[in-house]
């Protein structure tokens, strides 16, 4: 069941990514170089051809990144299949999002050529509220980034859970030790009382 969920999430990401790219490439406004303002001064749709990795990085090392991406996608798929029953479900979904985003962008790097014959990825989400933000991205990039953030969150949650478990275990050991000390003290008191009673009986005789 978990495996169906994970690969279903990955396929959903791939579908959403390729479908939105299809819509963008079918827009006369965007393909003419114009923009579509969603939130004026903050967010808009703008068609950008990205020859590199996420948000334009590694443009000059396309094949190196493609090999790395392929290995990463295969590794995630194998990991999900092998550990589908033991991993945290949120962690599995996060990894599936990363895998789906990687597949979506990988598909365009292999099959999407521009007019110059260059293989490019279609980007169109453009936040221009911040002067330092220069990147335009797509659904696949969002899935990869959100998935990576959730992976980090899962790891932090696991560390917190482990810390609490160790703390409870330590507290439990301390209580057991205190109980043992208390029992020893009670035994000593009982022995002292018995010694006292025996001494009193000896005096009476």
Low-confidence stretches: none
Series of secondary-structure elements, N-terminal to C-terminal:
HHEEHHEEH
Counting DSSP E segments of at least 2 residues, the number of strands comes to: 4
Mean pLDDT, to the nearest integer, reads 83
Helix percentage: 55-70%
What structural category do the secondary elements indicate?
alpha+beta
Strand content: 5-15%
Radius of gyration: 31 Å
Main beta sheet, described? 4 strands, antiparallel
Q: How many separate domains make up the residues?
A: 1
Biggest sheet: strand arrangement: 1-2-3-4
Shape: elongated
Distance between the termini: 82 Å
Number of DSSP helical runs: 5
Can you describe this structure?
It is elongated, with a radius of gyration of 31 Å. It has one domain. It has helices spanning 2-25, 28-31, 62-82, 89-111, 139-204, and strands at residues 35-39, 43-50, 121-127, 136-137. It is of the alpha+beta class and 205 residues long. The longest helix has 66 residues, at 139-204. It has a four-stranded antiparallel β-sheet.
């Amino acid at each position: 069941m978990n495996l169906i969920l994970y690969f279903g999430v990955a396929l959903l990401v791939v579908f959403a990514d390729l479908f939105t790219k299809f819509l963008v490439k079918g827009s006369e406004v965007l393909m003419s170089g114009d923009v579509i303002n969603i939130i004026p001064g903050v967010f808009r749709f703008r068609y950008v051809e990205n020859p590199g990795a996420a948000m334009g990085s590694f443009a000059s090392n396309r094949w190196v990144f493609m090999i790395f991406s392929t290995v990463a996608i295969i590794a995630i798929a194998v990991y999900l299949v092998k550990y589908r029953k033991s991993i945290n479900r949120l962690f599995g979904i996060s990894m599936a999002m990363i895998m789906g985003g990687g597949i979506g962008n990988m598909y365009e790097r292999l099959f999407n050529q521009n007019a110059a014959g260059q293989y490019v990825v279609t980007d169109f989400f453009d936040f221009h509220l911040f002067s330092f933000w220069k990147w335009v991205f797509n659904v696949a990039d969002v899935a990869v980034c959100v998935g990576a953030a959730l992976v980090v969150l899962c790891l932090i949650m696991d560390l917190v859970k482990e810390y609490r478990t160790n703390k409870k275990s330590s507290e439990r050991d301390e209580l057991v030790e205190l109980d043992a000390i208390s029992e020893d003290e009670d035994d000593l008191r009982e022995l002292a009382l018995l010694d006292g009673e025996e001494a009193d009986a000896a005096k009476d005789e």
